[in-house]
Amino acid sequence: MKRWPWIAVAMLVAACGSGSQYSTSGGLVGVGLVLVSPVFFGSGTSAPANLEVVVENRAAQPLVVRSVRAQSSGMVQWGIYPVQRTFNETINPGEAKSFPLFATAVARYARMTPNEPLNVRAVVEFETAGKRYQELYHGQAHEP
Known about the structure:
The chain is mostly beta strands. It has one helix spanning 4-15, and strands at residues 20-23, 29-35, 46-57, 63-72, 78-80, 83-91, 96-107, 119-128, 131-140. It is built from 1 helix and 9 strands. The termini are far apart.
């Protein structure tokens, strides 16, 4: 019975990796997320946050992206409201495409300058070979 706490700790450490992906597709796609421009709150507590979700087709056949969802997770000072957008875009094998999302960022305090990196959970739903899949990205949004 003394082994159970160590197994739980090992599972927790494995689950909390940065930039992890959960795949129902067996790795048919790669997903990344970019914060296109810096977020500027000015004198308010909300501001636009332009995101791009980059999807790479690693499969041997074309796939069709149906929807993309994103929301911040684990943020303390600021974050984004959940956003979802529907698409009907085909990605050929070996190609990558960007899918824009226009989110609203919110801060705890007015006139805040974000110094905390944006942690995001993004879900991409797509179809290939007549089957529907989801790909999950959870990690920091990359900044150009």
